[in-house]
Design a protein that fits this description.
The chain is α/β, with parallel strands linked by helices and 299 residues long. It has 10 helices and 14 strands. The protein has 2 domains: 234 residues, Spore Coat Polysaccharide Biosynthesis Protein SpsA, Chain A, CATH 3.90.550; 45 residues, no CATH class. An 8-stranded mixed sheet has the order 1-10-7-8-5-2-3-4, sandwiched between helices. The longest helix is centred in the last third of the chain and has 18 residues.
């Protein structure tokens, strides 16, 4: 039996009753990193709270980490029932970086779950089975420590993992870490992890957090500690092409750091050329590629 056959599951493989029995005294945190997602974060929080905290006590807390939003993200999330923290206000003596990974790393200092489920805040087509689906392998298979979700996506190529996955992450995996090639969507924002593992990992502050966690888990725990779950269908807001260039830079930097191709600098200069009427304008970015040390080392 191959790894794919052993470690690929479907969200419907477990009932809520089975998961509640397996959970026992363990605590579960749902963590939602968010930046300017006031239009969607409230529904994410409210639906999970209703189905999995008030109806079935599978989730013990919902934590939203607000990454410098300029809209009403924090207020909407709090009104929906989440505990909301500004990323920069968590352990301020440690400083602050922009980025999704920073929010997820900071969540370790304000959440209490033995198991942590991460969900993006911009979901528009999804269901609450995402959370129990991701928890299934962690609660029923002691050897599993990290679980990735995968799903159909609206559009012509429903199973693709997104543009950055197909053009950057998957080729890097094929070249540098082929053991992870069986993961359907390695950059999926919906995933779950044991706290004991996540707090032992170095965490990129930006969008490379998911791929870095997979590579580091493979190296420290082995391939059998990773599982993936088919979550069905998911929709979300799509990024502008030029924004994807910044994400890709962070992913390449994290992989380069792990495979000896670059030093540990925290900023990469990126130039982009943007059509501007009849000409071209230059856009320069200082892309932050910093990494946080394992949280247990600073807790």
């Amino acid at each position: 039996m191959t790894w794919f056959e052993r470690n690929t599951h479907h969200a419907a493989d477990w009932s809520i009753a089975e998961l509640l029995e397996a959970k026992a005294e363990q605590r579960v945190s749902l963590v939602v990193p968010a930046r300017n997602e006031a239009t969607t974060v409230g529904e994410v929080v409210a639906r999970v709270r209703s189905a999995l905290m008030e109806t079935a006590a599978l989730v013990d807390e919902i934590v939203v980490i607000d990454s410098d939003s300029t809209d009403a993200t924090a207020r909407v999330a709090a009104s929906a029932g989440a505990m909301v923290y500004a990323a920069g206000a968590i352990r301020p003596e440690l400083g602050a970086h922009p980025g999704k990974g920073e929010a997820m790393w900071k969540s370790l200092f304000v959440s209490s779950g033995d198991l942590i489920v991460f969900m993006d805040a911009d979901l528009v087509e999804w269901d609450t089975h995402f959370v129990p689906g991701l928890l299934g392998p962690l609660l029923t298979r002691p050897e599993v420590e990290l679980v990735k979700g995968f799903y159909q996506r609206p559009g012509a190529h429903g199973l693709d993992g997104g543009r950055v996955t197909e053009l950057v992450a998957r080729p890097l995996i094929a070249l540098l870490c082929p053991e992870l090639a069986e993961l359907v969507q390695p950059l999926a924002g919906e995933w779950a992890v044991r706290r004991s593992l996540f707090e032992s990992l170095s965490v990129p502050t930006g969008y490379a957090v998911e791929l870095a966690a997979l590579v580091d888990t493979l190296r420290t725990r082995g391939l059998e500690s990773i599982a993936q779950v088919d979550l069905g269908r998911r929709g979300h807001r799509h990024q502008d092409l030029f924004d994807l260039g910044l994400m890709a830079t962070q992913i390449v930097a994290a992989m380069g750091r792990r495979f000896g191709a670059r030093d540990g600098g925290e900023v990469v200069g990126l130039q982009q050329f943007i059509p501007d009427g009849d000409g071209i304008s230059r856009r320069r970015h200082a892309v932050v590629v910093a990494e946080r040390p394992p949280a247990r080392e600073v807790a």
